[in-house]
Design brief:
Number of strands: 4
Strand order of the largest sheet: 1-2
CATH class: Mainly Alpha
Shape: globular
Number of helices: 19
Low-confidence stretches: 1-8
Order of helices and strands: EHHHHHHHHHEHHHEEHHHHHHH
Oligomer: single chain
Radius of gyration: 24 Å
Largest sheet: 2 strands, antiparallel
Mean pLDDT: 76
Distance between the termini: 22 Å
Structural class: mainly alpha
CATH superfamily: MFS general substrate transporter like domains
Length: 520
């Protein structure tokens, strides 16, 4: 039996302070920008910037694919350690010390993964490059698992109020969709800021700056955060098989996790987007005319071959619709159940990408300008689901945590987060591996440095893959949520019961701390 301390919160209904909102928002903003840059350029590091031969790239992809299954053992070890260990560090609680310990190595390893080896060390062999990236992949996985599991657990205990959870989710959504897009805009402007550097070098310096800026802001967020969900002051340390057994028996959580894992497959299509734009537009020159024949008419001339500029243009096109959905998401969920909104946004996303596929098929019958403008139109319409997509899933996951606490008196956020991340990474590894092989198969790798010579078949295949994969996985993600039953009045009854339990636990903790202080 071990005693558990909590942060300074004395009431489960204590409101989140403006300082906490500011700390959360600022750290999230920089984190989203770094994530966007990583997503925009990440796959290009191995496929293009390192200069690996087709054979070496295939070997590297196979090794990373196999190492991805190490996540299963790694996540089980880390999550069981965090959830079974009831040790706390004074008012720092259980999770903050791990975040403080891991944040610097996590960020530095990610920066090392972006070093432009081909530009700086042209004589290094492919064998060294592969070994270098594989080692950093292994270290990054080991450190980031601790960090992400602890951060998920801490965020889940930040507040018990469902309305405040909605505010936090909305802040993250707004920052993720607006400031997060800065990753794309930075990529577009880097050539003008650092014209004498190669694309790989510009990415390294830009990503390093954003990543290093995230460290102090994340530390601030960790320091000011309070845990308002308190466990009993005395509790039995659960056995590992009981922890996983309760997760499996948490039906709402399992339905949500399966849906999110399937939805993760959408990222494959998003990842292919960069390659598709390089293949189809980096050597093209065209002019787009908007609002022709009106006082608002203007022309966009694309002639410098900077495909990052086109991606930025596509992102800008969705800002208005994304902003509208971010504004509507917290309002509509007052009248419409989260489950219905979740299913609706998945269907809407699938329909948008299906329409994109049919509007550019067959590829050979459309000019690059026609294809680009159709992609932009559907990308903008997809923005109408983005606000809901970034807000609703997190709230559903919080509700599933509540159900586990209600049903089994355990939350086990670290284990749940690790299980979900492990399954997502396994799927991501499989799909990324297939995508890498696909890049070789269609001829992208062969013509990565000379896209003007890339055959039309390769360009059309990349564009089709970008359009159809998100559609398929969006529709598949709807199926599990049909069986999700935790919503409406049922969830309200559970949260009311949990509120009284949590306040009782917190009162006991405060009473024991006061008793200890008197005795000292």
């Amino acid at each position: 039996m071990k005693r558990i301390k909590n942060s300074h919160a004395t009431n489960v209904n204590e409101k989140i302070t403006l300082r906490e909102y500011a700390a959360f928002g600022s750290s999230t903003a920089v984190s989203k920008a770094a994530t966007a840059m990583s997503g925009f350029f990440g796959g290009l590091v191995a496929s293009t910037y390192l200069g690996l031969s087709d054979r070496s790239f295939e070997i590297y992809s196979t090794i990373i694919f196999i190492l991805g299954f190490w996540d299963i053992a790694n996540d089980v070890i880390v999550s069981s350690f965090l959830d079974k260990s009831r040790r706390t560090f004074g008012n720092w609680g259980r999770f903050k010390p791990w975040l403080m310990l891991m944040i610097i190595p996590c960020n530095l390893i990610v920066i090392l993964q972006t070093v432009p080896l081909r530009a700086w060390f042209p004589d290094i062999s492919d064998t060294f490059k592969i070994a270098y990236l594989v080692l950093l992949y292994f270290l990054n996985d080991a450190f980031s698992t601790f960090y992400n599991a602890a951060l998920t657990a801490l965020n889940a205990r930040r507040t018990t109020n469902n309305l405040e959870r909605g505010y936090i989710s909305a802040i993250e959504s707004i920052l993720g969709s607006s400031i997060g897009s800065c990753g794309t805009y930075i990529a577009a402007f880097l050539p003008y800021l650092m014209p004498n550097l190669s694309e790989a070098e510009r990415y390294f310096y830009g990503f390093s700056f954003v990543t290093l800026a995230a460290i102090p802001l994340t530390v601030w967020n960790i320091v000011v955060t309070k845990e308002r969900i308190a466990e009993p002051p005395k509790i039995e340390v659960p056995k590992l098989r009981d922890v996983y057994g309760n997760i499996i028996r948490n039906k709402p959580l399992m339905m949500y996790m399966v849906s999110e894992i399937l939805a993760h497959g959408m990222s494959v299509g998003y990842g292919v987007m960069t390659y598709a734009f390089i293949a189809c537009f980096s050597t093209e020159h065209f002019t787009l005319t908007f609002f022709e024949g009106t006082a608002l008419q203007f022309e966009y001339v694309y002639e410098n071959g900077n495909y990052a500029e086109l991606l930025s243009f596509a992102s800008i096109s969705s800002l208005v619709t994304t902003g509208l959905s971010l504004f509507l998401a917290p309002i509509i969920r007052k009248w419409v159940d989260d489950k219905i909104l979740y299913i609706g946004m998945k269907l809407g996303t699938g329909i948008c990408y299906t329409a994109m596929f049919f509007s550019i098929y067959p590829y050979e019958e459309h000019t690059p300008a026609q294809i680009f403008i159709r992609v932009v139109i559907w990308y903008a319409i997809h923005g109408l689901t983005t606000g809901f997509y970034n807000t609703i899933p997190g709230l559903i996951q919080m509700a599933a945590y509540d159900y586990g606490e209600y049903k089994f008196s355990e939350r086990n956020e670290a284990t749940v987060s690790s299980v979900k991340n492990t399954l997502s990474r396994i799927l991501a590894n499989c799909t990324t591996y297939i995508t890498n092989l696909f890049l070789i198969y269609v001829g992208y790798k062969e013509f990565a440095d000379t896209p003007e010579l890339m055959p039309t078949e390769a360009k059309s295949s990349l564009m089709y893959l970008f359009a159809i994969l998100p559609a398929i996985f969006s529709f598949l993600a709807v199926i599990p949520m049909i069986f999700y039953k935790l919503s409406g009045k049922k969830h309200k009854e559970i949260t009311d019961e949990l509120e009284s339990r949590r306040q009782h636990n917190l009162d006991e903790i405060n009473h024991l701390e006061e008793h200890d202080a008197v005795n000292v």
